[in-house]
Amino acid sequence: MPYEFRVRRRVEFSETDMAGIVHYSNFFRYMEAAEHAFFRSLGTSIVMDQHEPKLGWPRVHAHCDYMAPLRFEDEIEIQMLIAEKKSKALTYLFRIWKLNSAPPVESARGKITVVCVSRGEDGQMKSHQIPKSLADQIEVAPTGLLG
Questions:
Q1: Would you list the domain boundaries of the chain?
Q2: Is 136 a catalytic residue?
Q3: What class is the 4-146 domain?
């Protein structure tokens, strides 16, 4: 059962600002891209339209702490850990590593909480139990990895 997922990529020029470093907002894009890849690795998507009712995963909390800048062409790894699993919510811990440093440098650390929701006929979102088929594939990371 997975509790950790990693994805690698390079920093694109368009992700940098006038100072030549990655704009802070792109760290949230990196985290979200890792989450999407994680769901795909489990054979599903964050857009769970194959379920009835259709399910989604809005964010209810997100933050990021920045430790070291990233620049164009840096090779990075986004590490995603399951920090908490509830019946209707998941909390992820992300660490973003700059790999082309010796040793690799932790550039940022973030946390995002998502809630599984369905949308009623009136358009209102309502929290929904995480489908068993998905919940059974996910476990919380060992405490030692989360510290």
A1: 4-146
A2: no
A3: alpha beta
